[in-house]
Amino acid sequence: MVVRCAVCWSLRRDSGRSPRVVPVPWCVVSGSNSSSAARLRENAVVELLRISPVAEELAKRFAAAGHQLYLVGGSVRDALLGRLGTDLDFTTDARPQQVLAILRGWADAVWETGIAFGTVGLTKHGTTLEITTFRADSYDRVTRNPEVTFGDSIEADLLRRDFTVNAMAVELTERRFVDPYGGMEALAAKVLDTPATPQESFADDPLRMLRAARFVSQLGFSPAPRVVEAMTAMSEELSRITAERVQTELSKLLCGAHPRRGVELLVDTGLARIVLPELPEMRLEIDEHHQHKDVYEHSLVVLEQAVDLEQDGPDLVLRLAALLHDIGKPATRRFESGGGVSFHHHEVVGAKMVRKRLRELRYSKDVIADVSQLVFLHLRFHGYGKGEWTDSAVRRYVTDAGPLLTRLHKLVRADCTTRNRRKAQNLQRSYDELEQRIARIAAEEDLARVRPDLDGNEIMKLLGLPPGPLVGKAWKHLKDVRLDRGPLSHEEAVAELVSWAREQGIEAPGQP
């Protein structure tokens, strides 16, 4: 099938020769992907027209200086998918100092942070642009840092990129489409492949293996068989990458539209042994005498169900907690007499494991604290039964969750993966009732700010104490009383404080 294309030049391959871009008026697309490819090109036209005020101005300046300018990489991919953002990537044959000269007096702002790598950044009319000189880098294959070498051709520049869907370019003066490595066909087929061999690409930069899993999650693509084979064989190479970069890719993967698919690729290829070794360990062997849920599969379902409960976009903390909430089960599994299996205190063990793993991945203290607390609390609801909790227990549940309460609601609901419809309905009904009780008590008592009925200054004055640990103990005691009994009158709070002080051997001045 032949499809008319407004922006595309076609790639002609002559036997025994390197691919070259030639100007032809038609783009030939074969097989069932032709209609998809046509739609992709139509998207590209629309998106290029949308950014044309900035891109065309810039292209004219480069052409006047005798240089080429290409929209490239992820920007072309996203333009083809109809999702181009305001951060645009360009490449050029001009060297960095020549780029700076071309931009002088035109850009709203210019920065040279990446100029050693051939990249100049700028803003114009609210759009952020990065312009990088053609690269022909070589790698020492010990670190992921290349020896920066500038190139002279767009084809060589595209060959060094990570995936074919990111190895397309559009020459902006004539809007010529350049696709020497089949990126268009891969994009239409939703396949992730590499311009060079996967072995070469991943040896140069092992982080690309993790990026493959990230793109599977973000774009819903499937990796080519040879990519999966190389990732599996070379997974240990990922240990060359710093924890900070691994964490960044993992976070993007988890916040993608299809995080389960990305996680499964990590586990199936062995990359998870480097990134999150606890994940493959959740694939517990199950024998005919000791049946229990597949913890790994259960965790993936919980992750999917947590995503479905999100309301304001991806929530990294919730997704990490959903994926890792049962991380402590392998270490706590015990076979009981009669064929039972127990995982006593796996939430306690799991919270400690989460803190350790997320620290090693260089997550922030806030993320570590929040995820580990959600893992620690995720089983608390199962003591609720059919509503046996007292109001005091409900207050403690809310207080312990603090600002994580909304996330805890979602995690607990997502954790229900039973196929028994009646059991699932009963669990959801019980949690509905708990949320209603929380709302009622909150309306009555302002649960968001559960504090003792006397503050530290009043405690010191009533007990004649200077600032110190005893004041903190008194404050905690009054808070516990508040959680158990609800709000106290001032007189009741004073009497409770005096009674506690007497038990501690503290004489309250003016009190009989």
TrEMBL record:
Pfam family, one: HD
SMART domains reported in the protein's UniProt record: HDc
Top-rank lineage group of the source organism: Bacteria
ATP-binding among keywords: no
The keyword Zinc-finger is assigned to this record: no
Coiled coil residues, start to end: 417-451
Xref: SUPFAM superfamilies: Nucleotidyltransferase, Poly A polymerase C-terminal region-like
Protein name: HD/PDEase domain-containing protein
Species annotation: Kutzneria albida DSM 43870
